[in-house]
Amino acid sequence: MRYIEITAPGGPEVLRLAEGPAPQPQAGEVLVKVQAVGMNNADLGQRAGRYPPPPGASPILGLEMCGIVEALGPGVTDRVHVGDQVCALTTGGSYAEYVTVPASLCLPIPTGFTPVQAAALPEAAMTVWSNIFMLAAMAPGESLLVHGGASGIGSHAIPLARALGIRSTPPSAAPRRPAPWPAGGRRPSCTPSRTSKRKSFG
Questions:
Q1: What are phi and psi of 112, to 5 degrees?
Q2: 80 CB contacts (<8 Å, ≥6 apart)?
Q3: Confidence band, pLDDT 50/70/90 cuts, at residue 195
Q4: N or C: which end of the chain has fewer CB within 10 A?
Q5: Which domains does the chain have, with CATH numbers?
Q6: What pTM was estimated for this model as a whole?
């Protein structure tokens, strides 16, 4: 298969197209033919040599992607099937024609999403859901303060919280900046001063 290789730490110029064997799905994994990939700060850090992949992870860039399931590993039965189009969070390896992914991290493509849009979904969606709803166990009627409302995580958390009956408030230090979240999200209701931004809470 073809994949993107990092030839040395540096900028985009250190990336090149390479060829190697396709990965094989292990127990609980699926093999996906990649259609589109997402780009994250972790990819930029890894390319620059500041963010090495964890032990056992693929050295190939790419933590989220969209594609078609080509094969199932042992133990994968009814969650996903060959031919399904999925988006998924990976431990690496998405900047390639094929990548293996735990079946438990595969998501169906939302209706109306293109592969490019779907590839940018898993990192934000899983981060928001695991922190706000699985760990914090937030419930309808509660309030959520979202720092970094203009970020990928923030712009996902605000409309999702609102859809589930949670009041969301993103603070803003730049009142003239256009709101990045979709129509229906809450606009900033508090603006921290320079003093409060620099105050230590440790």
A1: 90, -10
A2: 30, 69, 72, 86, 103, 106
A3: very low
A4: C
A5: 2-120 (3.90.180.10), 124-191 (3.40.50.720)
A6: 0.77
